[in-house]
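Annex B. Sample input.
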Amino acid sequence: MTTRWTYAFVDRPAARFAQACDFWTSATGTRLSEFRGERREFVTLVPLGGADACVKVQAVASGPGGAHLDFCVDDVRKFAKAAQALGAHVVADQGTLVVLRSPAGRLFCADPWRGQSTRPPVIRGSRLDQVCLDIPPSLYDTEVAFWAALLPDWESRSGSLPEFHVLQPPAGLPVRILLQRLDEERPASAHLDLACADIEATRAEHERLGAEFVARHRNWTVLRDPAGGLYCLTGRDPETGGLPNRMR
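Annex B, continued. Sample output.
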């Protein structure tokens, strides 16, 4: 099954949806599309200059939100059946869109490919290019095996630290997957990662836009956006996604 395009979804509580839209358009150098959905709960962050979008924002009715992935494919039914055979469960079948849940409980969607092909550029030294799936230890190996089998055309490799596993998409696709093994048993979650040429410069810009500092690690910094969602600035090359000395 070939993945033609990928989207990262910024999922935030409905009460803070407007704050999320304002922050993430500024942080990614994009503009908002028209709002969609019965409650106007979906919007696309449209790149300037003609590139294809790869980030969307969704207002969620309950819970703190987080992030999820959409996979654009030629045959949604075939992709969904393959995912089910590997242990996923269908949450909603909307005809052209199928919402599924992975073995560890992470939501993802299968959506028709509509010709997207041009990746958005790096903006002010950073690029939102990764969804990190945070998985409890008891489900980590199963989740890694699931994604590696579902996405056979992606490069599946161990990260530079034992708790990381990377799924690198084929050239040209804009969003990759990082699986992180948590150090305790708690429900799986997901967050966004940006690749940054200069973490501190990007941090300063994001704080100017309303983000709050949470924690600093050796090669990544954790921030909280104005809508309450955690995300990371990582010291990876924003052009290639590559890691200095393979640290993350």
